[in-house]
């Protein structure tokens, strides 16, 4: 098996892919490759048998436990659980969370407590919440529900891939009754104490960096910083992995050996002892386990005077971790960490061919970024091409200064406060300047390559071309390398350019709850238009939340490869129609906003829109607006009615051979006015006014329009009772097909030329 453990690891991955994508094609292609190698004499019979056994084993091992992916979507029912805490207890200012394994069913639950704003955790209760403690918990069960929009994060799959059945919300800590602990509690307790100590002795700026880079807790890092690192492919720096473990070991070697404190052999035994402990101390994430166990295994083998190549080491660690916890393999950090390390090991010979340190950094950055590119596109739908070059600068800075300095601060934190403050201020001065430079770079050079959703076929072809490219690059076949590199670049560009060659257009009514958000995508990506972009909001302060934009609108746009919007039509100024606009224009380029003559632009809106260089246009009644070949006819408002709803911008357009009416929140009075001003009006597809309120959709109006489809955007169990029974009855009596977000999720109209078809997201993803 020496030199062949990667075949067993690959068989595990193939088994998982075949199950996830429900396709035996993965097995078929893999077995063809394996048998070709066997008949070429490159695989021994015993290895072939091991591979076949591994395929069968992992196919059984990764079978999804559907009982844990509960189909019971009833929310907030009282439940009492008895079981053991199997994770560390994570405490922040806004939440307390841990995982509990139920003693009878062995199912795992995510236990969550959200303290009140002025609440203080009771120390007596906190002291009982320990890893391994046996607990009785009373709370409300919250089963994960499937996504209802394209591109939306799938919490149901996320929980299932962590082996968690459901979330249980505990309203009061008195409902947590725990006692006992296990042998690992002292490590988790030490970690909590160290994090708390850093927060007490260091500034609010420095402490989060120490906790993130040494102890694996990034909960106090600013969200803007995390987003900045994500945008530029620098997230691996914030996640403890091989870089951090390697630096820690290097510092220990330097301190203990250079100062002749202990011998090299004794230091290796010390490392063998502390590496597993540090993996737990650093949060126990898969990436830190991978790095720690690789060094651990290499040291053990060295003590046993056994040699093993790095690829076998990586493969064995991979297998050990997924056999220890099969849910590790679904962890994004786990996938990124192993894939990058795999690529770096295979590229080792290419790296050693260069004698330039800077060129080596560029090589490592290039291989790392290219290895994870398909995964990055799969999870985030975009990447930053310049991140390869920024990594060359930022990684050495963190390796040579930030991470060692953070380790130094942690180790010497017991020193007198004047010294700690001096070191703290030194870090703030240096790191603050560097972060400012990164923010400037982000401001002027952040032009992400948005590709959208990619298929598994696209991923496989990408890796085939990339492997061939790397082989020719190592063999220094310059002409062939250039040709294949050009093919690889064109293939990546093809992924982003697909919508520009597609004759299919889309109209999407997103499920944003109680609000409106329609997205029109013309064929060949000739134009992208939004009609309203609502948000959820608090009635106490009437401030819109970013939740709808971040969880629904933005993911949809990225999944469709949209990074520019030609026009946003705003029907009126209610937050359930415009609340997401500020968040939208801050992240997505918008060329134009169109509003009615009577839309009341606030000073804040005007400042915000103009600062983003958005053209603002008011349109009048009966005006016809053409954008990229699509014409919109303004049917209302004809005059100022001194009411936001009645002043809604009403648009008529023709898409896919059907006449569409977007009615905003108009009432029956305005409906009558439209019938009076446009006597021959028809509407095949009707965006039902005011979310199906009985103040709209009069029988006379519906009879005149004679729609075939009625689209209703309304929140589930909303406080207004929308859509009302009267409106539904009016539509059903006329045999009009009703499509509503609260029942169907997002609704899409796909069209080509004059033909189109409706589909609903929930029906498509049953």
UniProtKB/TrEMBL annotation:
InterPro entries: ComA-like_MBL, ComEC_N, Competence_ComEC/Rec2, Competence_DNA_uptake, DUF4131, Metallo-B-lactamas, RibonucZ/Hydroxyglut_hydro. The keyword Lyase does not apply. GO terms for cellular component: plasma membrane. It comes from the Bacteria. Its main location: membrane. Pfam families: Competence, DUF4131, Lactamase_B. It is found in: Cell membrane. Keywords: Cell membrane, Membrane, Transmembrane, Transmembrane helix. SMART domains: Lactamase_B. GO terms for biological process: establishment of competence for transformation. It is a multi-pass membrane protein. Residues 514-716 form the Metallo-beta-lactamase domain. Signal peptide: none annotated. The chain crosses the membrane at residues 6-39, 46-62, 232-255, 267-282, 334-351, 358-380, 386-410, 422-441, 447-469, 481-501. The keyword Cell membrane applies. This is DNA internalization-related competence protein ComEC/Rec2.
